[in-house]
Write a structure and sequence with these properties.
Order of helices and strands: EEEEEEEEEE
Shape: globular
Distance between the termini: 39 Å
Number of strands: 10
Mean pLDDT: 96
Radius of gyration: 13 Å
Strand order of the largest sheet: 2-10-9-4-5-6
Low-confidence stretches: none
Number of helices: 0
Strand content: over 45%
Structural class: mainly beta
Largest sheet: 6 strands, mixed
Length: 119
C-alpha cells in the first residue's frame, strides 16, 4: 500500500515561509513522479506542484515564482518550499505519487499538514 506522511505545516504571517516534507512508502521512490496537493475548506483538492522522477517540475499558476518543489531520493522525501505566503494559501497540504501533472494520484491520502496564513 502506498502511503505518505506530510509534515512542516503551521501558522505563518502573510509574506512568511514554510517548508513542507513528505515521506512516502510502498513505492520505489526514485522512479515515482510526486505531487503536492492542497484542499481549502469547502474547496476541491487541487494540484499545487509536481516533480517527475527525472526532476522536471511543474507548478500551478497561483504558486509560480513563490513555491519550489524538490526531492531527495536518498531519503525518499519530497519537499515544498513555500515563500511569500498569502492568506489564500491556507489549506491542508498533501503529497501523493502521480506519474505526471495530468495523472491521477495512485496512493492513499494521508492526514496532510495544515498551513494557515494569517496575521
Amino acid at each position: 500500500q502506498v502511503q505518505s506522511v506530510e509534515s512542516g505545516g503551521g501558522l505563518v504571517q502573510p509574506g512568511g515561509s514554510l517548508r513542507l516534507s513528505c515521506v512516502t512508502s510502498g513505492v520505489i521512490f526514485i522512479t515515482a513522479g510526486m505531487g503536492w496537493y492542497r484542499q481549502a475548506p469547502g474547496q476541491q483538492r487541487e494540484l499545487v506542484a509536481h516533480i517527475t522522477s527525472g526532476g522536471t517540475t511543474n507548478y500551478a499558476d497561483f504558486v509560480k515564482g513563490r513555491f519550489t518543489i524538490s526531492r531527495d531520493n536518498a531519503k525518499n522525501t519530497l519537499y515544498l518550499q513555500m515563500n511569500s505566503l498569502k492568506p489564500e494559501d491556507t489549506a491542508v497540504y498533501y503529497c501523493n505519487p502521480a506519474a505526471n501533472r495530468y495523472s491521477r494520484p495512485f496512493g492513499s491520502w494521508g492526514q496532510g499538514t495544515q498551513v494557515t496564513v494569517s496575521s
